[in-house]
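In response to a reviewer's request, we include the raw inputs and outputs for one of the modeled complexes. The two entities were modeled together in a single run.
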Amino acid sequence: MDGIQRLGRWAIGTSERLGRGYLFLMAILAGVPSTLMRFSLVIQQLYSVGVLSVFLILISGLFVGMVLGLQGYYTLVDFGAEESLGVMVALSLVRELGPVVSALLFAGRAGSALTAEIGLMKSTEQLSGMEMMAVDPIRRIITPRFLAGFISLPLLAAIFSAVGIIGGYIVGYGLLGVDDGAFWTQMQTKTDLYADIMNGVIKSVVFGFVVTWIALFEGHDAIPTSEGVGRATTRTVVHSAFAILSLDFVLTALMFGEV
Amino acid sequence: MPLIEIRDLHFYRGDRAIFKGVDLDIYRGKVTAIMGPSGTGKTTLLKLIGGQLLPDQGSIKIDGQDVHQLKHAQLYELRKRMGMLFQSGALLTDISVFDNVAFPLREHTDLPESMIRDLVLMKLQAVGLRNAKDLMPAELSGGMARRVALARAVSLDPMMIMYDEPFTGQDPISMGTLVNLIKRINQSMGLTSIVVSHDLEETMAIADDIYLLSDGRVIERGTPETLQNSSSEWVKQFMEGLPDGPVSFHYPGVGFEDDLLRSKAAK
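The model returned the following C-alpha cells for the whole complex.
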C-alpha cells in the first residue's frame, strides 16, 4: 500500500510541477513582445549566457573534431575511403554532435548558472522586492534570459561544428596525410544545406528553448534555501541532459526517418 | 476613513491556519505597528496587503480598492504607490547602490538621467548614504543595506510604506538611526507606515497605534501607553518578555514525561 501511495504522490507532484512549468512558460512568452522593445536587457544576457560560454565551446569543439578525425580515419582507411573523412566529420558534427554536445555543455555552463542566479534572487527576496516595486520579475529578469539562451545556443552549436571541422582537418590533413582537396570537396558535395545543416540548426533551436526553459523554471521554482538552490541546479543539469538526448532521438527520427 | 481596511482575514498554509479572522484598520499619516511572537504570520500579513499572497477568506482594501479583486495591471499600478522594506533589504546585488535607488525611477518614469541623478542623491542624502552611492550591495553592512532599501522604497514618493522587521539584527547605532529615519520619513513625506516587528522598545518609540497578533487573531489593539497598562495576561507576557505564560515556551506536542517514558518503553 505504501508503494502505491508513494507512486500516487509522485505522480501528483510531477503533474503539478509540469503544470507550473507550463504556466511559467506561458508567462515568459507573454513577456516576449515587451522584452523585444527593450532589447538592451537581452544583449546584457547574451553576454553572460552566450559570450562567456564561447571559450568552452571552442575548446570542446576542437577536441571533439580532432577525435572524430582520428577515429574516422582509422575506420575509413581499411576501406581505402580516407578521402571521405571530411564528409564524415562534417555530417557527424552538423547533424548530431554539434547540436547535442553544445546543448549538454550549455546546460552545464549557462543553464546551471541561470538556475543558481534566479534561485538566489528568489531566496534573497530580490524577485519579491521587484514585484513590490511594481516591476514584473518575469518580464524584467526571466524573459530576457530566456531569449538570450534561445538565441545563443544555435550560434554556439554553429561555432562548435565549425571548430570541430577545423579540428578534424588538422588531424586528417596535418597529422594523417589525407588529401585536403578531397577533404573539402567531398564535404561540400555531400553536405546538404536543408537536409543536414538546417536540421541541425532546428535541433539546436529546440534544445536552446528547452534547456533555457528548464534552467529558468528550476531557479524560479527552487526552495529558497541554499540546499534548495543546490538541488535545483543539479536538477537543471540532469533534466536538461534527459531532455536533450530524448528530444534528439525524436527529432532525428522525424528528420531522417525516411532516409 | 482608514487607508487600509482588513476584514475577516483567513489564511492557511496547508492545513495550518495562519489567520483566523483578523480585522485591522490602518490610518493615514500614522505609524501602525503589528507585533507578535515569531511565527504569527506578520510577514505573511504584509505579503497579503501587497497582493503577493491570496487570502482564503476576507478582504483587504487599500484606499478603497480591494487588493485581491484587482487585475494584474491595476495591482501593479497600486504597488507603485506602496513601498516595502524587506528584512533582508532585497537590494539587487548586481548593481550599485545608486542604480538600486534609481531602479524604480528608471522602470516607471521617463525622467531624464540628470533628474534621476538629483532625485537619487536626495533620497540617499535623506538616509545618510549619499557618499556610498558607488558601493555594491555586498560592500554594505546590514544596517546600511536597509537604509539603501529605505531610500529605494521611497524613491517614487509612495503613499504608504511597509517595514518587515526593520530592527532585527541591527547594532545599537544602526537601530537608533533606523528608528529615527522611519519616524522622520513618515512625518516629512506624509506617509502611512506599517511596521512589523517584535522589537518592543524601538517599535513602541515610533508607533502611534499597535496591534498584537497571536494564534491567528488580533489579541489587543491600542496606543503604546494603553498596551503598557493592559491587564491582559498575554499582553503582559509579551511586553515583559516572560518565557512562559499564555504563549507556551515549548512547541506544542507530546509532554516531556510521556516522551521520556515512551523512549524507555521502546528499549
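As requested, we also summarize the result in words. The interface with chain A takes residues 47, 50, 52, 76-77, 79-80, 82-84, 86-88, 90-93, 103-104, 107-108, 149, 152, 156 of chain B (CB under 8 Å). Chain B has one domain: 4-230.
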